[in-house]
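INFO batch 0412 | record 1 of 1 | parsing
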Amino acid sequence: MPKLLRLWHSHGLHPVRSALGGALAIALTGLIGMATAHYVAHYVAHYVSGPFLLASLGASAVLALAVPASPLAQPRAIIGGNITSALAGVAVARLLPTMMGPVQSDALGMPLALGLAILAMHLLRCLHPPGGAVALMPFIGGKAIAGLGFGFVLFPVAVNSLALVLAAYVFNNLAGSRYPHRPPPMPKPAAPTYTRADLDAVLAGLDDLPDVEADELDAILRAVVAHAGQRQP
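INFO prediction complete | emitting C-alpha cells
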C-alpha cells in the first residue's frame, strides 16, 4: 500500500477519514434519493410522497465508513438487513390492524416487527443493527410511511441502501480499505498448532460470538502462530 494511503489508517487520521467518508456517503445517498423521489412522484401513479432519505442510514454510514471491516457493515448486511427489516415492519403493520384496534396494534406490532426483523437477519446472515430502526418506521413514520405500504421497501429503503453501499465502495477503496472486506493474505505457519475444526468448535461453545468473521479470525491466528515461529529460541 502506498505511504500516503497508509497514513489514512493511522490512529490520528482515521476519525477524519471516517467523518469525511460518512459525510460524502450520506450526501450521495441523499442526492440519489431526491432524484428517485422526483422521478417516482412524476411517473408512478398513486404514489404517496415519503422521505427521500431514512435517518437510520446515518447509522449505516457510521458502520460502513468507520468500521468497514465489521461483518455488520458489509454490503450484504446493509442491503439485506435493511430490506429484510422493512419487509418485517410493513408486513406486521398491515396485518395487525385487521385483527385489533390501532392503539393495540402499535403496542404489539413494534416489538413483534423488531423481533421478526432480528430473527430474519440472523437466518439470512445479514445482521445490521440500523435495520431495527427500519422495522419500526412503518409504525412511527407517520402517514407518509404508512401510505407507501410495501412500496416503502423499494423506496426509500432499497434505493437508499444501494446508494450508500455504492458510496462506501468508492470511498473506502480509494482511501485504501478493502470494501467489501476480505481477509488480507496472511503468512501460514509450516505446522499449524490448531485446525479450522478446532476454531469452529471453540466459537460454537461461546455464548456471545465476536464481531469478526471466522475466516478472518482464522487468518489472524495463523499469522500470529507463523510470526511466533520466526522468533529465535
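INFO post-check: The chain has two domains: 3-174, 185-233.
INFO record closed
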